[in-house]
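Task card 7
Instruction: Convert sequence to structure tokens.
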Amino acid sequence: MLRTIVFPRRARHSRHVVLPIAAALVFNGCSGGAIPAPIHTVVASSCASNFIELTPEHTRSPVQIDLNAGYYQGRLANLPGYSYVVHGQFPDSVLMSWTIYDHDGHIYSGTYDQRVRPDPENVNPFEPGTRVLAANRSYTLFFHAVGTPVPRDVPASNVLELPPVPASGSNRMYITERSYWSQPGVPRIGGPPSKQPPEVSAVSAYNPIQSVACPGGGSGLFPASAFTIPAPVPGHILFFRIPS
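Output:
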């Protein structure tokens, strides 16, 4: 069964996202205790080497299906003791999303542009009535395991849960930022004013103001079961569950 969700943003666009019901993103609340330290004081360990920028000119997989999209994709070892901080800027595009997949390639948690609260003194240009080209457009996300603390100044809507650590087999998880239909002349990943991809950094799961070394990419292969790409629908962005 498919459903269509309309995300209004600009008068000249209506955004239609087609999602299988079974693959709808899970918007988890924040678990664990809050701590008073601002996340912006953290000097964390960058995980940039575990992420790549993709701007596909042809369909590669169910994760990279839209040729008008940009993807910032990472693979990280899913190990106990790690949380992650993301510092980014809202792209100048029609839609932005963040999705975390477990080791089997199943969607575990995620969020999208209008749910993300901006940093103090910044704005979310996806919110109705906000200047689309606003320069102060920074945001912070926090990824953590259930039961581990979350910095107090990170809004609950900006917190995503990490999948459970697998007991055996692949210990990888996959994190993807997507940016769809960027404005002409604007990079598909990143956006004004920095035009840089988001910064994803590792901190201690038990003390999120403490920097730790990024755990690396882990081991295992992304599920590669046979799949059939649904036919494109003009004016729609198509998502579907990766076969398991």
